[in-house]
Each structure stands twice: as C-alpha cells, then as structure tokens.
Amino acid sequence: MIYLDNAATSWPKPESVYQMVDKVMRQIGANPGRSGHTMAIEAGRLVQETRELAAALFAIPHPSQVVFTLNVTDSLNLALKGLLQPGDHVITSSMEHNAMARPLEALRKNGVTVTKVATSPVNGISLREIQNAIQANTKLIAITHASNVTGTLNPIGEIGQIAKEFGVTFLVDCAQTAGVFPINVQEMGIDLLAFPGHKSLLGCQGVGGLYVHKGIILKTLREGGTGSHSESLEQPDELPERYESGTLNTSGIAGLGAGIRYIMETGMEKIKQREEELTNLLVAGLAKIPGVVLYGPPLGQQRAAVVSFNLEQISANELCMILDKSFQIAVRPGLHCAPDAHRVLGTLQGGTIRISPGYFTTEEEIETCLQAITAIGKELVEEMK
C-alpha cells in the first residue's frame, strides 16, 4: 500500500510514538490526576510533559493554557460555542472545513451573525476584505491556517494584527499545518489555537488540543470530575481542568508527546522542506498528464502538502477506487468534509481527488502514483476512440 492520505491522518508514525503508546497501555494504565499511587502519578507526569511540549511548540506562555480535547473538531466546538453568544458577529473564510462551518451554522441559527469572506483557492483570504467585514459587534475572527482541499495558506500573522488592532478575538484552525509550519501564538496574535494530534503532529487518533489565551473564559461544553475541587458541585475555573472533565486519553496524549518530541528532534524546517519537495514533484507531474485539472496554488507557491485534482472523463470516486484496487494507492475522493471550499472551486457536484504526502512518503511513491494516473488517463482515451 502506498499511503497518500496524510491530510486525513498521518501514517506511518515514528517508532517512538508506537513504543510510547504501548508502554503506557502496558505499564502506566492508571488515571492521571486521580489517586496518589505510583502509576497514577506517572500517568499525570506524562500528560503534563505533553502539555509542556505542546506549549513549547506553539510558543504558548504557560502549559496550563493547553487544553486536551478529543480532536480539532472538539477544540473548535469548545472555542466557538464557548465564546460566541446571540448578537455576536463572527468573520470566517469561504473555504472552511465542516469542523468550523457546522458549529458556526448551528450558532447562526441561534442568533450569531456569520460573515464568510470570499477566499481565493490560489492566494487565500484577503486582508482588506477581513478588515472591511469588521462590525461594531464583531467578537471573533475564525480562520483555517491552510485549506484541507487545496493546501492554500492564509496569512494568519497579518490577520492576527488586524484582530488585535480592532480588539477582536482570533481563532485559528491549524489542522493542516501544526507540526510543519512554525506557529507562534504570541507573535501571530492568536487567542485560540485548535490543533489535532493525529495529522502532522504524528500522534494517535482521538486526541487534540486547544490553546486558550489568558483572560478568555469559555462556557464549558461538559462538566464532571476533574480531580480537583471535588467538594464543589461547580466546575472549577482553573485551566486546564475547567475544560477537561473525565478521564483523559492518557496513552493518546503520551503518544502525541512522543510525536511532538520527534518533530523537535528532527527539525520542523527539515520536515517542511521535505513535504514541499514531495508536493512540488506531485504538482509538476500531475500538470503533465493530459486531462488533469489541478486546483489551488500553482507550482512554486508555498502551500500545505495537500493537492486536489480531477481527471476528465472519470469521477473522483471511481478514480480513487481504481487507484486503491488496481494499484494499492490510498488517496481520498469527494468533498473532504469541506463543501464551502468546493463551492468556491466549482466542484461541489463530484468533489476532487486529494493526494496528501507526508514526511515519510518517498519520491518513488509519488512517481508510482503519477504513473498510475497516467495509465488510467491513457486507458480512458483509448476507450473513447
């Protein structure tokens, strides 16, 4: 199997991640922050260690501002529903994933006004349009760092400056960039940062995180046991306990810590350069195949390692099935949970094929994929004769 679906979940993982998850499950399988015995204390230490690693990765001032969640969708729901109230106004892009778009739609039906700023699949969102969209009741700017359909990057540092200038809270979804592109929440003016553990941070599925800037108080989405202030029926105010009710995914969090440590030891710039090389090789190769329609930034322009295309005379779903069954190549067809992006691209009807290489992808795998698509295209031409 040639795996080219890293935008959904990265695979394989570093060996150190597998080893850490196995170790926790076999040797440290107690509840962190509960009990006082050795296993529980060690579990708590591993959770705290990962919190510190995440804080260091994103330049978060204090580890307690890192809240562990189920995934980036859970993080975005907490940020959006915890902050916005009826009468508030939020600005977002027209190319968001449903993890952002669906909670915003639910909030819109309950009195929150949502402005979707037109976004270019080539150049990203316009800073001028964001500034023009700000109103007196604008509470939040909520933007993805990179499109999960085209890899198009948004200028989050500049957007953060605008948000700060107008006193607006700034939420960033970094699902496609965390672990590859440098993100400094302080320098970029980010107040809320939602990140997944299972993509380029190289951890397990079922764990994510949310950075919460000091002074921001979110309504809780759930209440329950936190291991602290147990005598009170009120949810504690302190971070991160306020948003971490119930037993944490200790093995998943520890695996995330191992993934972040691997990134730090390898060097993010090295990882980024590697993914850029693979993406450029892919884009250049696809552009040479007759019948291929490419979407997103052109060759040479910086993007996340996400490439969408279609092949004329065949649906994305059928092409994906042929690549899987006949060539053992794993890619993703369809709408990629981002219908707004496909409305912008004009591909809402059938979606696109998405290829997303990762750090462990090889040049040979990219070439094999290109050869397979070329062969399928030639066969389609022959059938039409």
TrEMBL record:
Domain Aminotransferase class V: 2-367
Pfam family, one: Aminotran_5
A molecular function GO annotation: transaminase activity
Catalytic activity: (sulfur carrier)-H + L-cysteine = (sulfur carrier)-SH + L-alanine
Enzyme kind, highest EC tier: transferase
InterPro entries, A to Z: Aminotrans_V_dom, Cys_dSase-rel_unknwn_funct, Cys_dSase_SufS, Cysteine_dSase, PyrdxlP-dep_Trfase, PyrdxlP-dep_Trfase_major, PyrdxlP-dep_Trfase_small
Requisite cofactors: pyridoxal 5'-phosphate
Protein EC: 2.8.1.7
Keywords of this entry: Aminotransferase, Pyridoxal phosphate, Transferase
Keyword Signal: no
Membership in a protein family: Belongs to the class-V pyridoxal-phosphate-dependent aminotransferase family. Csd subfamily.
Protein name: cysteine desulfurase
Source organism per UniProt: Pelosinus baikalensis
Lineage: Bacteria, Bacillati, Bacillota, Negativicutes, Selenomonadales
